[in-house]
Amino acid sequence: MNNPVGREIFETAKVIGGDVHAFSMLAYHSEKVCGDGWAIVGDAAGFIDPLYSPGLDFCSYTSYYVADLVARSLRGDDVAERLSHYNHQYPITYRYWFESLFRNKYYYMEDADLMSAALLLDVSSYYIGLVQAVYRDPEREFLNLPFMGVGGKVVRAIMSFYNRRFAAMANRRSTTGYVKRNAGWRELYDGFVPDRRLGRHISRGLSRWFKCELINLMLMLRKPRVAAGIVDPGSVPDVTASTGAGSSALS
Ligand SMILES: Cc1cc2nc3c(=O)[nH]c(=O)nc-3n(C[C@H](O)[C@H](O)[C@H](O)COP(=O)(O)OP(=O)(O)OC[C@H]3O[C@@H](n4cnc5c(N)ncnc54)[C@H](O)[C@@H]3O)c2cc1C
């Protein structure tokens, strides 16, 4: 128990034999989320990750969109175009969300240096890209599924880029035997709120990223100790590759 937070939390914990269980392949998404007279929302439509905590945002966007759709349909409007948009955009939103935030995350989640930089950038981007707009006008913004249009593609490209860098650096750290500096780390924030304090979080995230890149440059001079890398960020299977009727598995 090197970490002070872990030590505090598990101070009185007792090990119970055989009490540890594991689940895999938790992620899924539906390729069709609505049709004539039906629509699915929240976890019924898809689930990404139990640890890095998305879910309720998906629930909010999809529930809002579908509630609006049902209200229009009950009013007698023609909702065919909105149904078609939901079926088209939902898998894109899911896929971009996964690619920009979750792909390869588990390779560096255990490295405080890399993960703290990524967390600051991830949460700040999330607040700037989505939360701020929802705070300003929830009625309108919850109807726009995240990552729509060209803006969505740009945000996804930026976030995927830095997350790929963190995964690649984790790979180099692992193959060169770099000893992680997780001990004694205590990360506290004064909260994430959609105001100018986000700028401070971003600059902290960027400066930590920069330091990680410097360490990475230094590690490039070391000979790899492990023959094969743990990560090939380019080789992760396409999340949209269907594994069965109506749903996809991540890996
Ligand atoms: C370990 C873990 C950690 C998470 N952490 C976070 C987090 O930090 N932040 C975040 O935003 N999200 C998080 N999530 C995701 C979030 O909890 C879910 O996305 C959210 O609860 C989904 O809501 P839902 O209403 O779609 O589905 P659910 O909450 O699953 O609700 C569905 C309900 O339907 C009921 N039901 C099922 N079948 C039937 C039936 N046949 N008849 C009647 N009722 C039925 C179920 O009992 C359930 O009550 C986490 C999820 C997990 C598993």
Q: How many β-strands, per DSSP?
A: 6
| CA(first)-CA(last) distance | 31 Å
Number of distinct helices: 9
Spatial strand sequence of the major β-sheet: 4-1-6-5
C-alpha-based Rg, rounded:
21 Å
Low-pLDDT windows of residues: 232-251
- Find the structural class using helix and strand composition: mainly alpha
Fraction of residues in β-strands = 5-15%
Helix-strand topology string: HEEEHEHHHHHHHEE
On the 0 to 100 scale, the average pLDDT is 85
Keywords:
globular; 54% helix; four-stranded antiparallel β-sheet; binds flavin-adenine dinucleotide; two-stranded antiparallel sheet; mainly alpha; 251 residues
Structure overview:
The chain is mainly alpha-helical. It has a domain at 30-180 and 208-222. It is built from 9 helices and 6 strands, in the order H-E-E-E-H-E-H-H-H-H-H-H-H-E-E. The protein has a 4-stranded antiparallel sheet with strand order 4-1-6-5. The two termini are 31 Å apart. The model is unreliable at 232-251 (pLDDT under 50). The structure holds flavin-adenine dinucleotide. The site of flavin-adenine dinucleotide has 10 residues, from helix 2 and helix 3.
